[in-house]
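Hello support,

Our group uses your service weekly, and this is the first time we've seen a run hang past the timeout. The protein is PPM-type phosphatase domain-containing protein. I'm not sure whether the cause is the sequence or the server load. Input pasted verbatim:
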Amino acid sequence: MPPRPGPPRAGSVPAGRGGSDSLVASGPEEARERQCPTPPPPQCLGPARGAGLRAGAGGRLLLTLRFWQRNVKRNGSRGCLNRSRFGSRERDWLKEDVGRGCVYVYGRDSAAAASSELRLVLCTVDTPASEIRDGEERKDLFVQLHGDLVRRLEPTEKPLRIVYDYLAGLGFDDPVRMQEEAANPDLSCMIRFYSEKPCQIEQLDRILLSGIYNVRKGKTQLHKWAERLVILCGTCLIVSSVKDSHTGKMHILPLVGGKVEEMKRRQYTLAFTSAGAQAQTYHVSFESLTECQRWHRQASTVVSMRLSMVDLSCYSLEEVPEHLFYSQDITYLNLRHNFMRSSGAGSLDSLCRFSQLKSLNLSHNRLGEFPVSLCEISTLTELNMSCNGLYHLPSQIGKLLNLQSFWLDGNFFTSLPEELGSLQQLSCLGLSFNNFLFRLNNLKRAAADTLEGNKSVIYMDLRDNQLTDLDLSSLGSLEQLHCERNKLTELTLSGFSLRALYASNNCLTGVSVYPVPGQLTCLELAHNQLQCVPDWVCEAKKLEILDMSYNLLEELPSRILSSLSLRKLTVGHNNLQSLPPLLEHIPMEVLDLQHNLLTKLPETLFVKALNLRYLNASANSLESLPSACTGEESLSMLQLLYLTNNNLTDQCIPVLVGHQNLRILHLANNNLQAFPASKLSKLEHLEELNLSGNKLKTIPTTVANCKLLHTLIAHSNDISTFPEILHLPHIQIVDLSCNELNEILIPEALPAALQELDLTGNTNLVLEHKTLDIFSHITTLKIDAKPSLTTDSALTSTFWSHGVAEMAGQRNKLCVSSLALGSFAEGVEAVYGMFDGDKNEEVPRLLQCTMADVLLEEVQQSDTVFMSNTFLVSHRKLGMAGQKLGSSAVLCYIHHDMADPASTFSLTVANVGTCQAVLCRSGKPLLLSKVFSLEQCTEEAKRIKEQKAIITEDNKVNGVTCCTRMLGCTYLHPWILPKPHVSSIPLTVQDELLLLGNKALWEHLSYTEAVSAVRHLHDPLAAAKKLCTLAQSYGCQDNVGAMVVYLNISEDNCTCEMHGLSLPGPGGFSSTNAKTTTPSSSSGIASEFGSELSASEVSSEVGSTASDEHNAVGLDGNLLPRQERRCSLHPLLPSSIFQRQPSSATFSSNQSDNGLDSDDEQPVEGVMTNGSKVEVEVDIHCCKGKGLEFEPPALEYSSSAPGVEDDSGLVLVIQRQNSINSSAVHGEVKEKCELQKSPSTCCLYGKKLSNGSIVPLEESLNLIEVATEAPKKKTGYFAAPSQMEPEDQFVVPPDLEEEVKQQIKQHQENGADQEQKEESAVALTEEFDTAL
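Update from on-call engineer: The timeout came from a worker crash unrelated to the input. Re-ran successfully.
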């Protein structure tokens, strides 16, 4: 028996033909040394794929590395490949060891091909690129990440290992799952292998254009047309003879500053002319219009440049094109983001050939070492070597005597050579993100004595460190200081030259500046612990901007408010109770006073601050407003006024008339009951009006005078008449949700600018078809959906309800999307999510449409990491859209515990980015998510810093996003990751609501304020609207989204039998004359039911699913045997496989058309093939109240659930009480009826019953909804005999025992007569028991 072969190692001999290429590998000894899994034997690979093992020379065994060539069709989403399936034998081979896998190898131009040629390579994690390269009969193998740069793989690099490491970096930790993901072709949008280096035509044109064309020199026609080789590269046009293109005479025409023109007399001909007094011209004739346009487009770019600059960044270059060296006038060369080599033809050693080169950018080239040859380019004045993994600078750097700017950011320098000090002209040295910089390190202290040698420093950046105290009093030349996001408690500075100080987000209790900074213009001290304004601030005579918001200020000095230089004052989120009076005119333009304790504003505010254009006094306790004029005429220039969330009444409206220049007015959440028509008509310049959250009953008709109005927000009022706003020419957004609208008067033509109309939450509004047709032209129309049998929102309304609000703000598009599924996955579960794309709307829309499906798949596959895998798979499914675009996301899943389905509800939350979820528990906010941003997550900031990402001054990764984890933006890998933060918490009766919001919402609302703002509201839609309105009034101008989920997870919703309710048997009490204990539906306690027949009798009359035998007499009143009944809060633990629990009080059936149960493989005897026999499962709500009054049941026929006739002619009909939410059931003879659809099958992922039966969706959960279809065969569903249940007895409150005993006695007296009547009416040959 031959020895067991080792792993595949490809050689150079091709083997196998006819549809599959295989490579013959030699050297089994080397394979054994690696100790990797063996490839599949020949019989496993199949005869069509050739022999797996072959006998080589000398009897050695040759292994085969398998390649499959497949034509894989592309899907319609941006060129991503559909899943291609290989044989089950190959799949079995992969499953034998997680070290095995497959990689997809593409051709050179597979991205442009309509049907790409794809090769599937089975290999191991130790298979080097050289084997795959030889198998493809190619010189090299290339890898491309995120559709960006293409890098040549070294022969020893292992492609499958690269893929596995990439997946592990994303967040996958299961080797088996990584193997599955690596075999998915969708992964090619993130990582892809090529057998040839791909390059787009557009990139090639920018690098070099060449061809043989007819050329004529000069402007006159003295010269003849001749065939010449023409090359456009860099800044020059090169013309040479065909034979001597490289050695013969060349004519070089500089194009920078010249011109290129089309010749009218000759078709497809361009005239290239150089700049200068002795300009030369060459005419080039092309063969086609397309080719002429390509040359004209590229040449026009060159001639339009003012400087001789060549940009070859992001082209995956390894060397500079040889023809570029003919452009000796190049002064600026950009080679950023390539793979330039240090030696060889066209490498960095050749750059010294550019005699006039002044600026060179070589950042992001993975050099590893500083090229010494660059020190020979003595003309350089600017050199960028950032992000190259450099550790040392050579001593020859001192030769660059003309160097003025030297960028070394993002490397690993710990020291600099002394020769750097000899560069006398060096004025800018970038050393950030190394191992000795100030910013983004762990500096704990920076005192004056350690900075004695830097007294000439004028700018210092110490942001994002751990500084606790900072003394820079010795730096007399310091003009600007950034020390945000530290832990500073004391700050001491010199004020001689200080112009700007930024010290927000610290713990400052005092700031000392001496002498008084006479040149200070900007001071930002927000988010600190200052209790008063420093005295030296009041003496700064040139101070224009002062930000002291989010401090502990209790008073504001009069010298600050009366400053003659201050133009912008921000003191919001303090404890100010009053403001000093204004005695003189001030130049104040912006005043932010929100979130204080103000009850009034200075009486002369609008009279003395005539330049005031912006005032925000929201979230105070204002009851009145100061007058805007002292005489008859007002000089107010106020344009933006925010007064949301105060105590203003109708008396403040006349004061607003004095501000006739108002463009934006927010009066939301006040005590307004009316807006006088005469006052509104005078605000002619009004563009945005927000009156939501008041008690308005109408919008004045004079709103038609506001011709410039484009936004009207008046939700959550009592408006019954639609305002006359559809005549306004510029109206764009109208929000009248959560009002009392009952009709709409529509003009003949809607305004063309109208983009959004929100009418949700108006329960009395009924829109006609004609009205809907007119509104169909609106881009976004929001109306309440009509109740439908296909929805099951009523089933889950007992446990949760939600409302969603999304507002675009000042932006022209909405980049926030929400996911809200109140019923999910065939059970009482829910999924809620929010996605924020910042500046793109494509990725949030994709996540909104696909993430629920991915979650459902992952829940079925894994019970531990399903939430994390949901995010990772969704990240992959974004395809090419996720390469450059990304989105923050938060996903909340309400479900039962996977390990214990009998448990109560749990809430699992996962998020990336800045979208957050907050749970209100006992009235207090509980944060369930994590903010992944550079400012708020120190661990992520440290990780990104170690990976050498560039963090710009606005705290964004590579200047793109402040998030450190997102879905999408794959081109920022490994800095930006999709792995989410996951938390899970059991829901309790103390949980009131769940809030979801994007970054803009939580930036302007604290968790506590958001919870307290919506706790008292009963409508989740109105609550979500209110949160967005508050954010906008507090200064949010970006997209804002909010979702409010009201929770009602309590034992009051329990319908379990174990909590006290048992159904009586035939011997129990049940009579139409008996009084029924029925609590109020609003109490949250479920009602009982009364009927002419008991529940057990209903089961007997309808048909048994438990036994073919007659029911035996049971214990305690002849109770019928049945399984213990559980509700959705406490589902019954399944005995075998996992199944989703049905919704409360719903009908469920697991039968198919052939009579198969969901778990049966063979038809069950006694079941009709048309599926007419069904299983009924009903949850009866338990009664736990005391002191409940009896009321006579007022019966009213509801939508019955008729069934097909059986032999007895009896059909079950459902009756519902009109006022007490109880159900009554009685027998009735019907000839023909149809089973209606079950609400339990109406969820998003539910399936329609195969027999077409349905049950109507009832309005209340406190109903017994029984749908059945009597069988036509005289056989039961199970053969097991009935078993009695001693605990099946009715539990009665103590204060009702006497009355219940009387009912039981009366029922027993009439029981015999009633039983005789029933036997005479119909003689049943068999009884059927349907478990309730």
